[in-house]
Amino acid sequence: MVVDADRVFQALADATRRDILARVLHEGQSVSALARLYPMSFAAVQKHVAVLASAGLVTKERRGREQVVHGDVAALRRAGGVLTELEGLWRHRVRGIDDIIRGDSDASAGRAP
C-alpha cells in the first residue's frame, strides 16, 4: 500500500490528532470516550478522527451505537519509512557537502578515488 504522505503528515500536524492516535494505538477507544478527554465538542473530536481515518492512520469499527477507533501501526510504519527515505537523501547530501569542504572532488562527484 502506498502512503499518501500529504494526508498523513497533515493529519499528524495537529497535536490533538497525534494524541488521539497515540491513545488508540495502545488500545481501541470509542469516539465518545475520546470526546470526554478533550475540551471540545463531540463533533470536533469526530472530525479529528475522520482526518486520521482519511489518512489511513486509524480504522473505525461499529459496535452497536458506538464507533471504536483503532490505530493502524502498519500505516504509521509506512509513514516512518517515508521519513527514513528522506533522511537518507539528506545524509547523502551532507556527506557530499563534507567531501566538497574537505576538497575531495572525486568523492563529491560520485567517482571512486
UniProtKB/TrEMBL annotation:
**Origin superkingdom:** Bacteria
**UniProt xrefs under InterPro entries:** ArsR-like_HTH, HTH_ArsR_DNA-bd_dom, WH-like_DNA-bd_sf, WH_DNA-bd_sf
Q: Which Pfam families match?
A: HTH_20 (PF12840)
Residue limits of the HTH arsR-type domain? 1-97
Look up and give the organism this protein is from.
Paractinoplanes bogorensis
Record SUPFAM superfamilies = Winged helix' DNA-binding domain
SMART domains found in the cross-reference section: HTH_ARSR
Q: What is the lineage of its organism?
A: Bacteria, Bacillati, Actinomycetota, Actinomycetes, Micromonosporales
The name of this protein is Helix-turn-helix domain-containing protein
